[in-house]
Amino acid sequence: MPIAPARIRAYTLTTALGHGCRPHLQALSEMRPGLRPWTQEEASVQSWAGVVDGLDGVRLPARLAEFDCRNNRLAELALGGDGFVEQVEAARDRHGPSRIGLFLGTSTAGIRHTEQCYRRHFEENTPDLGDDLRFAFTHAYVSLADYCRRRLRLSGPAMVISTACSSGAKTFAAAQRALSAGLCDAAVVGGVDTLCATTLLGFHALGLLSPTPCTPWGQGRTGISIGEGAAFALLEGDGDAEDDGVSLLGFGESTDAYHIASPHPQGDGAVSAMRAALDSAGLGADAIDYINLHGTGTAANDLSEDRAVARVFGETVVASATKGWTGHTLGAAGAVEAVISLICLREGLIPGTLNTTTFDPDLSTCLIRDSAPRPIARVLSNAFGFAGNNCALVFGRTSCA
Amino acid sequence: MRLTVTGIGIVGPGLADWTDARPVLAGHRPYIADSLKVTTPIGLNPNERRRATLATRLALDAARQATAGQPHGGDDEDATTLATVFASADGDMGLIDSMCRDIYQHRVAPSPTVFQNSVHNAVSGYWSIAEGCRGPSTSLAAGDGTFAAGLLEAATQVACSASSVLLVAFEVPAPELLHPHRPFGSAFACALWLEAAAPSEDHATCALAVREDEQPLTPMPDAPLEALRRTNPAARALPLLAAIAAGRSTVIRLPYWPGLQLEVRLGPGA
């Protein structure tokens, strides 16, 4: 059943590639990497990571100081990109603060702050975790939405979606529904996740962390590289669309019902998410000009997604994976890659697949290796997460809606 | 937004299931804050079953109660496409504690099993595996307004899809070190099977509205139940469940965000 497209008024992102859309466009166009060797002693694993520089120097507004933690600092830094805050302020003036919804994704919120309190407790024998844990403002999932809601002075419906690596993508779906149901007239969506010890060591323990930069779709690929990132978009219902604008045209969601940490081998869940996304956009598979794959670089994930893409799109589709640039930004990844897709739509760029020199011959979808300019009208972006949670989004030029 | 509630599940201290809890919540039988009845999840393999955390056990129990007897709750093909919303403010804090203790107290790598179960949507994942349910699933959080956020999201999905949505809310107490920072009184889970409002004499209908004011939140008249409501975000559902149990037409205010409440106008079936 086709949905009403949602206009995307503004978007921004901050990852290891930089702050705002421009450095991302440049890095994607020029095949300039963002990953670097992971050297932090807080999690001694041999790996590469997408680190956002400058977070230690970010200061939250004084009225929101109790929210201080790396995750909310990244949110603060990212919100300042591409005039995003100003665009939200303008929407607030148009609709009123209570008519703007807020839907944000994260997998771990400010858990890094909690880790540091545990570390202090056990290494310095402090009596407890300490009052400066500020649980509700740092650790709690809601802290991300609470921070951004106060920062943007919004008072409408709000929540955090946490479905592992599909979180950021699903916020677009939730926002479109809220707009359709009349709960709000505009919505801020996105995702924020920051590097932390439990995530790095946890993926390492599962044998999914690559010791070298991740190589999505690569022959002999060795796993993911983790990145931190934040991306935001401002959605509005239809109306006074500019001709060169971009819209959310469709979304599809599903679960695998298969395994808690492994995708369905034939990509059943991914297939139903992609088909639902096309259906909700009222489009056939041949209408998609480019697929931004989930493409994490683990053996099982890429194999499953490859099978799924081939089942929905055949083997001649134009697709690539961009995690070689940013690392896998986990709960933010769906939003980060949605915004990368929007940049590519607007700028007419097909990004390549960084780091991968030899593609796995067992995978049937041929990926684009080198970035190249090419006008595109519609993009599908995949985000799949632990516990088999899948989301596919379709974006397009508003004139194509 | 208007909804029909056609299935309910509940697990809490002294509230073994909906059949057991209904007369208590309706005020026909006194509430005794007894121990928690924890069941073994059905439909998971022996490993998954053995390792299932308290949060998973309670949530799956409540979800199963709400789906039992549904026209689409059995082996019907629709059960495999059912959309679900899992609402929990803080998820499984015991798993976070376990990983942090492994890293900083025992100086070993966190257990891979604990890590994969620590994602907020693990409970939703186990439900989907147990039931073979491949429909969309959203796991969400909104602090002490998490139940209201879950109900609103589920209602929005019903409104947009005209299909059934299963809402599951759960919350379990934090382990020792985290408990002072998030002091939940007891574990609690509940589930609602929600459908588009249809005239029916058997089922409660509710109309939801987001209200920008600070009315008194609907309390529980019974002091121990009110204590449970106040000390567990999932138990913020109790006034709604109590009104349904009593078959009352009433208006309930649920906490959502500061200055923002969810109003539930509960009507008779028809």
Task: Provide mean pLDDT of chain B, rounded.
Answer: 94
| CATH homologous superfamily assignment of chain A | Thiolase/Chalcone synthase
- CATH fold descriptor of chain B: Peroxisomal Thiolase, Chain A, domain 1
Number of domains of chain B: 1
The greatest inter-chain interface is formed by: A-B, 67 and 63 residues
Name its key features:
heterodimer; A: 401 residues; alpha/beta; Peroxisomal Thiolase, Chain A, domain 1; 11-stranded mixed beta sheet; 3-stranded mixed beta sheet; 31% helix; B: 270 residues; alpha+beta; 8-stranded mixed beta sheet; 9 helices; 8 strands; 33% helix; 22% strand
Helix and strand layout, with pairings?
The complex is a heterodimer of chains A (401) and B (270).
Chain A: E1 6-15, E2 18-19, H1 21-30, E3 36-37, E4 48-50, H2 70-79, H3 84-95, E5 100-105, H4 111-123, H5 142-151, E6 158-161, H6 167-180, E7 186-193, H7 197-205, E8 226-227, E9 229-236, E10 246-255, H8 268-281, E11 290-292, H9 299-313, E12 319-320, H10 323-326, H11 333-347, E13 349-350, E14 372-373, E15 378-385, E16 389-397
Chain B: E1 2-11, H1 18-25, H2 46-51, H3 54-67, E2 83-87, H4 93-104, H5 112-117, H6 122-131, E3 137-141, H7 146-161, E4 165-171, E5 188-196, E6 204-211, H8 223-230, H9 238-246, E7 250-257, E8 260-267
Parallel strand pairs in B: 2-3, 2-4
Antiparallel strand pairs in B: 1-5, 1-6, 4-5, 6-8, 7-8
Helix pairs in contact in B: 1-9, 3-6
